[in-house]
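Why run this: before we spend reagent on co-expression, it is cheaper to look at a predicted model of the complex and decide which construct boundaries make sense. The entries below are exactly what would go into the expression plan.
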Amino acid sequence: MENTPPTLRCFNENHCAELFPDDGVETVTSEEQKKVERNIEEVLSVYKQIHSVPEPTLLREQHYQYLKKGLRTLSDAYECLDASRPWLCYWILHSLELLEEPIPAAVASDVCQFLAHCQSPTGGFAGGPRQHAHLAPTYAAVNALCIIGTEEAYGIIDRERLLDFLRSVKQPDGSFVMHVGGEVDVRCQNWEGGLGGVPGLEAHGGYTFCGTAAMVILGKEHMLDLKGLLRWTVSRQMRYEGGFQGRCNKLVDGCYSFWQAGLLPLLHRAFFRDGESELSLQRWMFEQQALQEYILLCCQNPAGGLLDKPGKSRDFYHTCYCLSGLSVAQHFGNVDLHREFILGKEENRLAPTHPVYNICPEKVAAALQHFHRLPVSGQSSAPSSSSHQQPAPAADGELS
Amino acid sequence: PRPPLLCRKLSGLYFIEDRKEWSDLEPVPQDDGPNPVVKIAYSEKFTDVFDYFRALLKNDEKSERAFTLTAEAIELNAANYTVWHYRRVLLQALEKDLRQEMRYITAIIEEQPKNYQVWHHRRMVVEWLSDPSEELEFIADILSQDAKNYHAWQHRQWVIQEYKLWDSELEFVERLLEEDVRNNSAWNQRHFVISHTTGYSDPAILDREVQYCLCQIRKAPHNESVWNYLKGILQDRGLSSHPGLLERVLELKETQCSPYLLAFLVDSYEDALETNNTRATLNQAQEVCALLAQVKDTIRREYWLFLGRSLESKYGPTAAPQSDAASSDAADQQELS
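The model came back. Tokens follow.
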């Protein structure tokens, strides 16, 4: 395990050399960026004044209380997420598992029963009881159930109906609509090297992550221009803030700590499988320390919960993805080769997360083990290993 | 416990339960199960509207009152895709005036331009009407408020492609780039328009674009978008294939250097190595990688170190060795740069 270097990158005397140079040409983009940088400068300055020895601290207890409460009740500010309640379950449960806080059995069972109420009779999961099934809450519900990982949880999923649902939203061009009569969700690598929401659109961190992870699941990541994708992704880390932006020339946001930084473990593994000999054995290809500094110093609400950037409100989405990004930045490698780099106290350490599914690797392994034994629809017994299409590399829960 | 009917009427709040037109319908409360999780503390109005919405959905009622209720539900949660779907079913079943629906969705998008469902709904209405005539102007208005709204750009690309409205789009892009040369969405749209119309194969077009980029670079050298675009349009042909470009970039390096310029140099050298692998070129590439990793782009240190090692591994073993003439040329170059 590496020790924290004595000084923080953001308190380096040359750090201000990384501020955005507007070349004397002021535009909306440069002005917005400068505003954020001044804000961050202020935050760092205040921190330095309060702490004579900088030691960024993850506010575990505060985050835990925030999450524990949210898992049960939410204020009416969450009415806008009334069609995303499985997401709320996933964001909160994943945050708790990263913090290594156990989920009491009763709560876990309650989540299972609630998600059962969100399952559609025709298959898939909806945003809430009696709503229509939709791919996004389906992803969230399945992930949440796998985090819980009990027989009860696995048993909630009606696999046959789910397969019907997936077939019903599959399009002739290979893409999926998000729900019956809904918008198309196709990813495409563009001239920038990243992926957009549909062919032709600007490269964007969220879509790039989802598309790449999907390709990894399918074992088809080599169909992407990996070098172009790598260059685009690493270019999204902000030189001053340390966090990541979602698109070129836009602002830093804590959630991209996962969507963008989370690509680097995927790409590392893809390059490795491609036979690349020059990969580092110690680090991901992004500045792990700088990202940890951004998250710990700029993205924590003192009352619990994490956020986009200073000045923004906390929410469970940002809590999930800031913590997920922090975990990626702390843990390099896989089960066989693992190097940790924890900024600040050892207590800042989070559990590692699986870069494809963004739940903990043990949960991935357990779920795969459970479901691989079960018959696929239309077959009378569990599939033998030879009838599997090339088990997706990520499927074994291992990262090598 | 809810206050009695009289008090609610006095405070001016009319809930659906009070309206006679709904008296035949039994509201359906939300069934979260016995021990709910992520339970939202809905306002009374929210609860009312959705209790009645669930009742309508359950009965599959296709009526004017149902249609009116969808608007209330949408106002309370515009992200409820079930409500939007139902509204579309009603629009067709009741043969509603789609022009009016366009006015409605225009207003909603102006209020909530970052919502997925509203844009998808607009697309459906445009398709049903087969009328895209308002779209470019409407989207331009949304972009005037947020020039990078992803949904707006997605809708714009769909309209242009579906209805072949390419004619004035490059002009529109140029206008946006004049306003903000750092607008990456506009650069993307530039690529979109050109690749779907003239393409980049015509050398006159390609050169026009390269000159446009160099012009924008001179004005604002630290603009990543323009450098990415320049690379993006040249990479399939090879960065070193454009005559004179490397020289121009090396000139710019003197007075308008940036990490993006240096990265472009690395890419150019790498491309040159593909066709003519020499130790001199490889050294040049390594030098810039090292400069980026150690001084000019340290946030990407790990990446530049990897790239350096990669280049060495790929080209090093078979690089044409430097002759004496070549090594003194290389030394001269190093002195100049």
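The longest helix of chain A spans residues 28-50. Chain A is about 40% helix and 5% strand. Bring this page to Monday's planning discussion.
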